[in-house]
Specification:
Chain A: InterPro entries: CPA3_Na-H_Antiporter_D (IPR050586), ND/Mrp_TM (IPR001750). The complex is a heterodimer of chains A (481) and B (227). Helices cover 77% and strands 3% of the residues of chain A. With 481 residues, chain A is mainly alpha-helical. Chain A has a domain of 206 residues. In chain A, a hairpin with a 2-residue loop joins strand 1 and strand 2. In chain A, helix 3 runs antiparallel to helix 4 and helix 18 packs parallel to helix 20. Chain B is globular and about 55 Å long. Chain B is 72% helix and 0% strand. Chain B has seven helices and no strands. Classes of the chains: A mainly alpha (481), B mainly alpha (227). Chains A and B meet through helix 6, helix 7, helix 9 and helix 10 of A and helix 4, helix 6 and helix 7 of B.
Chain lengths: 481, 227
């Protein structure tokens, strides 16, 4: 048990410090941002490589309070993913600010909020007690709301206010759950709680409350209504990081607590799996009906998050082999979707920015004039649809095997229908963009960097499918009890 | 029996909460929140947590209450909000959903409370902590009811603050004012403050841009797009 090592502390605080620095003088050149931010993912990579020696854990004493943290393979992997996506988002934001007219003050505010988001996410990945998780969750949530409001239009304001109210109520539900756990078992650290807590009614109620707060923040059907409007008006780099990581952090916490407190609650796990299935189907149907490209991508996020919920029934009370497959599938899907969804939001943002359109019909002629952006969109869609050799395919393959091995056939149906629906909405976009019989529209030139970042993320999502063995190796030993 | 001052405090807390949530005159409702936060500080003193009382007075009463009052005063070019909330309450058709939410929240909290404290919790509470936990449940009920039925965003922010205070009371009543509880409540107070500031600033800008003080007109299609 040691206090937080300095390099980990630096990795946590550096995003916020850099964000504050950029707030004072907003960056105008992506080269500078790359130079300054690049050490962060490198440090995260170094931490991940060092984790093979064994997970680290420790405690931090603040007066009478003791905070617990631990860093295992999963946390290090998610940390690396976070730093990479923060870097991509920051680089994209610089280009975005040059390609569009952003309010000067709003653009300056983007940076500390992005930094605060980085700190919040970092805290969530390494937290090993409920107080630290609470701090991370709230920091992340408030920064996310703040970032969504930056456009300042009436739509953005009212969508953001709705998101704020949802997030605040979600955090009170979460706090009530913690209150019951603390009242029943008298401690907040996860390891101690796991040792003493019995699955009695109070624990069940507490986890139900925690779960509903987290599902609200993770936009799982039926608590998803805030997500699509909020993305419709948000800036592209903000949408990218939000769709990629923010909603998944809530899922991560829920899975962590569920496996700790109610590992054998099969009925509850099935209920979560059914909610996830509904999310897959409803998100897919709505994405097929969406009028705007960004709404389509946002609804697709809701559907893809639903897949993650299949982890609960496949992990609860199943054999070790099934649980191992489901566990790996979950994290491959999370990482693959994070990369692909950020790429998809950025590619969609590029298409919208250069055509000036909001609706899908405005994309006519893009296949010839904007081949790079459209190709990026298509490559990201390969992961979203789960075609080989992407990470999405690996994850769905593992889930399929796990469902069949566990005899939980309903999920097979959900996986198949979800794939069909995602193919349907992706081809809707492609079909619109290959239409040629319209008067030559006017296209705007975009900085090449914006296209290349999106392309790099989309390729990374496919590459993750090809090289899934390495991250899976980092997960396996620490993941399962 | 709990000491008489605990009973008095619990009664006053409930009265102020009710006043704050029912009052359509926004300035008075915000003053009600300030009074409520000061009473909460007294409750923390009663439980033997003077630093928490100070934090509640500073963060809850002074800063959160002050922010909301400042919102009503208006500032600079932004037009002022109307002093009285004239918006109708939500339609009766949504009532079943609303009551389902309120009753399931309160029911879950109540069952857990009785399970933890024993059936004695149903008789007049024996100690100040138990009494405050029960008061917390009632205040949560009031806050939830107001949050779900009202449309004016400032009043929903008030309801959120009261709902949060109810959760804090339940937390402190269940676990006593130990270090973890103080830490959680402190974080909760900061979150409530930041959320209130963010909500109030947004409300002012939304009001200035689109004349809206509710979310009801804000369908995803963007019917609230101002001139």
């Amino acid at each position: 048990m040691s206090p937080l090592p300095l390099h980990l502390l630096w990795l946590l605080l550096a995003p916020l410090a850099l964000g504050l620095l950029a707030w004072a003088s907003p960056p105008r050149h992506s080269g500078l941002v790359l130079l300054v931010v690049l050490p962060l993912p490198l440090m995260a990579l170094w931490l991940l490589l060092g984790i093979e020696a064994g997970p680290m854990a420790g405690r931090l004493t603040l007066g009478p309070l003791t905070l617990h943290w631990r860093l295992d393979g999963l946390a290090a992997l998610l940390g690396l993913l976070t730093q990479l996506l923060l870097l991509a988002s920051a680089l994209y934001a610089v280009g975005y600010a040059r390609a569009t007219i952003l309010g000067r003050r709003a653009y300056a505010w983007l940076w500390p909020l992005l930094g605060g988001l980085g700190l919040g996410l970092g805290l969530i990945w390494i937290a090993a007690d409920l107080l630290l998780l609470y701090v991370g969750l709230e920091l992340m949530g408030l920064c996310a709301v703040g970032m969504m409001l930056l456009p300042g239009s009436a739509e953005a304001l009212s969508a953001g206010l709705r998101y704020l109210l949802f997030a605040l109520v979600g955090s009170l539900t979460w706090l009530l759950g913690i209150a019951l756990l603390l009242g029943a078992w008298g401690r907040l650290d996860l390891a101690g709680l796991g040792a003493v807590a019995q699955p009695d009614p109070v624990t069940q109620i507490a986890v139900a409350l925690l779960a509903s707060g987290l599902l609200l923040k993770a936009a799982i059907v039926p608590l998803h209504s805030w997500l699509a409007p909020v993305h419709g008006s948000a800036w592209t780099p903000v949408s990218a990081i939000h769709g990629a990581l923010v909603v998944k952090a809530s899922f991560f916490i829920l899975l962590l607590l569920w496996r700790l407190l109610l590992p054998e609650a099969i009925a509850g796990a099935w209920a979560l799996g059914v909610l996830g299935s509904l999310a897959v189907l409803w998100g897919g149907v709505q994405a097929c009906r969406a009028a705007g490209l960004k709404q389509l991508v946002a609804w697709s996020t809701i559907g893809q998050l639903g897949y993650l919920m299949l982890a609960f029934p496949l992990l609860a009370g199943t054999s070790a082999g099934v649980a191992a497959m489901a566990w790996q599938a979950t994290w491959v899907q999370l990482a693959g979707h994070a990369l692909a969804k950020a790429a998809m939001f950025m590619a969609a943002g590029n298409l919208l920015l250069s055509t000036g359109a909001q609706r899908l019909e405005g994309l006519t002629g893009t296949s010839r004039r904007l081949p790079l952006s459209l190709m990026t969109f298509g490559l990201a869609a390969v992961t979203i649809m789960g075609l080989p050799p992407s990470a999405g395919f690996t994850a769905k393959w593992l889930w399929l095997q796990a469902s069949l091995a566990a005899g939980q056939w309903p999920w097979v149906l959900v996986l198949a229908l979800g794939t069909l629906l995602s193919a349907a909405y992706v081809f809707r976009v492609l079909r619109c963009s290959f239409v040629e019989d319209v008067p030559e529209p006017v296209f705007r030139e975009l900085p090449l960097a914006m296209e290349l970042i999106a392309l790099a993320l989309a390729l990374a999502a496919i590459g993750l499918g090809l090289a899934a063995a390495w991250p899976l190796a980092a997960l396996a030993p620490a993941g399962l009890p | 029996m709990a000491p008489i001052e605990a009973w008095g405090l619990a009664g006053l807390l409930l009265l102020t909460a009710g006043f704050c949530l029912l009052q359509r005159h926004l300035w008075r409702a915000c003053l009600g929140l300030v009074a409520f936060a000061l009473l909460m500080a007294l409750a923390w003193l009663l439980l033997g947590a003077p630093w928490l009382a100070l934090a509640e007075a500073l963060l809850g009463a002074l800063l959160t209450g002050g922010t909301l009052l400042w919102t009503l005063r208006g500032r600079g070019a932004l037009p002022r909000l109307a002093p009285v909330d004239e918006t109708p309450q939500r339609a009766r058709s949504t009532a079943p959903l609303r009551w389902l939410l309120i009753l399931s929240w309160l029911g879950l909290a109540g069952i857990a409370l009785i399970w933890l404290l024993g059936v004695d919790a149903l008789t007049p509470p024996a100690s100040a902590t138990t009494l405050l936990a029960a008061t917390g449940v009632l205040i949560m009920g009031l806050g939830l009811w107001a949050f779900t039925i009202q449309r004016h965003l400032l009043r929903r922010l008030l309801a959120f603050n009261l709902l949060g205070s109810g959760v804090f009371l339940l937390l402190a009543g269940l676990a006593g004012p130990v270090a973890e509880v103080r830490g959680l409540i402190l974080v909760g107070l900061v979150v409530a403050l930041l959320g209130s500031i963010l909500g109030a600033v947004l409300l002012l800008r939304l009001h200035a841009q689109a004349g809206q003080i509710t979310l009801s007109g804000a369908s995803p299609a963007g019917s609230g797009s101002g001139p």
